[in-house]
Automatic annotation (TrEMBL), chain A:
Protein name: RNA polymerase II transcription factor B subunit 1-1
Source species, domain of life: Eukaryota
Annotated organism of origin: Forsythia ovata
Segment forming the signal sequence: none
Residue stretches making up the BSD domain: 109-170, 194-246
Location of the protein in the cell: Nucleus
UniProt key word Nucleus: yes
Record's keyword annotation contains Nucleus: yes
Family to which this protein belongs: Belongs to the TFB1 family.
UniProtKB/TrEMBL annotation, chain B:
GO cellular component, one term: transcription factor TFIIH core complex
Residues passing through the membrane, by range: none
Comp. bias regions, Polar residues: 270-280
PANTHER family per UniProt: GENERAL TRANSCRIPTION FACTOR IIH SUBUNIT 3 (PTHR12831:SF0), TRANSCRIPTION INITIATION FACTOR IIH TFIIH , POLYPEPTIDE 3-RELATED (PTHR12831)
Oligomer and partners: Component of the 7-subunit TFIIH core complex composed of XPB, XPD, TFB1/GTF2H1, GTF2H2/P44, TFB4/GTF2H3, TFB2/GTF2H4 and TFB5/GTF2H5, which is active in NER. The core complex associates with the 3-subunit CDK-activating kinase (CAK) module composed of CYCH1/cyclin H1, CDKD and MAT1/At4g30820 to form the 10-subunit holoenzyme (holo-TFIIH) active in transcription.
GO function terms (MF aspect): zinc ion binding
Primary location: nucleus
Origin species: Forsythia ovata
InterPro entries, per database record: TFIIH_Tfb4/GTF2H3 (IPR004600), vWFA_dom_sf (IPR036465)
Lineage top rank: taxon: Eukaryota
Protein name per the record: General transcription and DNA repair factor IIH subunit TFB4
Pfam families in the cross-refs: Tfb4
Keywords noted in UniProt: DNA damage, DNA repair, Metal-binding, Nucleus, Transcription, Transcription regulation, Zinc, Zinc-finger
Annotated compartments: Nucleus
Amino acid sequence: MADGQVMKRAKYKSSVKDPGVPGVLKMTRERLVFMPNDPNSSRKLNVEFRMIKGHKFTKEGSSKQALLNLTQDQGGNYIFEFDSFADRDICREFVAAAIAFHGETGKATSEKPAAPLQDEQLSTAEMEHRIKLLQEDNELQRLHKQFVIGGILTEAEFWATRKKLLDQNDRRRPKQRVALKNEMWSVKPFSDGQSNRVTFNLTPEIIHQIFAEKPAVRQAYLKFVPNKMSEKEFWTKYSRAEYLHSTKNVVAAAAEAAEDEELAVFLKQDDMLANEARRKIRRVDPTLDMEADVGDDYIHLPDRGLIREESKDAIDAQYEPYRRYFSQDLNQHAAVVLQGRVVDVELGDTRSVAEALTRTKQAELANEVSEGNFEKDLSHRISRMTEIEDLQGPRDPAVAPLCIKDPRDYFDSQQANALKALGDAGSGAKTFKCNVSSLEAYGSLREFVSEIRVTGLSEPITNPEVSFKVLSGLTQNISSTKYHLGKNPHESVLDSLPKVTKEDLLHHWTSIQELLKHFWSSYPITTKYLYTKVTRLKDAMSQVYPKLQEIKESVQSDFRHQVSLLVHPMLQALDAAFAHYDADVQKRSAKSGERPNGFV
Amino acid sequence: MTPVASKIYTDDVSLLMVLIDTNPFFWNSINSTLSFSKFLSNVLAFLNSILLLNQLNQIVVIATGYNSCDYIFDSAASQNHNQRAENLLQKLEDFVHKDESLCRDDSVDGPGFSLLSGSLSMALCYIQKVFRSGPLHPRPRILCLHGSPDGPGQYVAIMNAIFSAQRSMVPIDSCIMGAQHSAFLQQASYITGGVYLKPQHLDGLFQYLSTVFATDLHSRSFLQLPKPVGVDFRASCFCHKNTIDMGYICSVCLSIFCKHHKKCSTCGSDFGQPQTQDSSTPDRKRKTSVDK
């Protein structure tokens, strides 16, 4: 792809079922050319990438063909079948880049930006990254289309303020990763009913799971292969061990283990697992409250509710290490599956998988050891939980964290100030300004206090009719505020507007911010380039102005007021910019007029 | 306070700090829909009902005077429970007397300003003391029964008190009995999450108090209380204490000025000279507001 063209063997088909014409497909950035092997065939193709709008492809799978389907704007399509999926993927990526490239530059070359700036030399990767960002963010794309394609800002200026976005690593890991399979007995032996052979099928996935669940096997692999035995022998031995376990014949297992040292490793209980379990138990929080409820009462059942395995009595102590307990296996399997994929290695190479897993486990162990704080934390927590109140010292009171408020809150609450203009709906008390001597004022206050001391509280405290009026007034007020601001008191004004208006308003807001950002950053004007830029921006802003007025008029009358409140700050900001521009222009013309005649 | 077994502490135990406006010039200047004595009787009945709601409820009353503020009632101080109202009124009278003796103005035009910042600070100090009294304490809130207009000279102190109340998670409720809205208390209630109310029928004040302001903090999570339609966010400038819409802000400490200054009076940073070549001053920011 770096050299700008791809050449692959392919078959050109007109539909999926068509056997296809074999030939060679050659693709450059500008066009794709298909030459059939048979020079007499008429199925030649020479298509420019400008015409191609999209591409589709079949998924990988052994039974499917490796197809690539290029769709045209007008509806026609070209289907190619490749020999291998790898080929197809290479072509697919190339096609994607070419389509994106043409989609971008097609729009840009149709306009002619007036700015006399050199074109930036962008690398393909950079270009692709930008295209990807635009595709992901709708709003960004809209802004880009409006300004860069509309010729108001150049590409460089647009992206100059968005350096942070571009710097992000675009090779992000996919958000979701495939987890481990939950099947426990994926290694099912396939036994031929006729002969005495049992076949085990081990895929890299299964091997990965085995290594994750059984650290002893992993360790054995690293130790034995390739020194003592080959990989095939190793797995044969392992399969033999599994087979013996599945027969549940402990005596036979012990016998075989005695003979074959390596087999013994697989048959014995896993020491590493036991160590790990012990370590985990030590780390359990002793303050964990495992309160049982009535349903959990198992103490009074015989044998505590567990099913005893009868055969246990007959087993000798010497066979004990060769026993495998189902519950242990199940728990270990569950723990590993829930932990998920710890290692992100290609599953092909068994050795590297084993090593990677070992490394992870070692790192975990090192982390635990270095966390000396753990003990301290634990004791701290224990003392918190079991504290005796009287013996505790004073603790600092809780404080609320600093929170940054949503600016839309502010807009909603400004409604009031508009309504204030309508005047308070009748207040119960009116003040009249008069000059009062302090003696008089204090005197009357004291009188009031002594009055009530004498008369005491009146009965009833309030007139019942007045109370009723108050109560109904309050209820109406509460329900009406809800009516005005929507069912949810946290809903903003914007949500109650019709969708089109809301989107228009938000879009205008972001575009005005973008324009103003570039406008104000161009001052003070020092070069001609800035001057032309400012003129361009000013023209764009004066176009937005009447659009805002239109929006105000287009809404229904109940929303008109709220919309004008929302539009008001935008208009103010634009006005400030215009005023500044005019003042600046005036200054410049005044200055240039001052120059002595000789230099004009 | 005697330590109480934790079983008795339910969710709705509250500590209510009531700040009563006792500005004589204000009470003198209102038309008598609500005289001070009627106001007091409503408030006393309200306080009694709060104490009835829960055995462990606590009330502290602070009087906001013209020249001073003082505590006039604390339900936790052990006293004869049958004589609560009398004690309160006695203390109130003493307070008025003391306030008068501190008065230096011979006459005042209009309703004058009461010392809201002082009483807010006293309330917050009391609340902090309660916080440090032990692991179990009632949930505090502040109720301002206010009528006097906002004193612009107190803007900075009131805003500081409001922010410290927000940080300690103490809501400030306000009930306005004057003729005009109070921008400071609107902001206080908005920022701290309290209720702001300007009653329309002042003779039914008791009904307002018991419906809206008697609710404890736990119940507020599921009760609908009146919300103000909007909040007046205008600030006062630090130099002249005038309420302003547009002004200058120091970019270091965010203090607000109405005119261009050479130096910030709060933090001492120098403001640069405005450049004459182009008309943009680096320190000047325009504060736009939406009203009017």
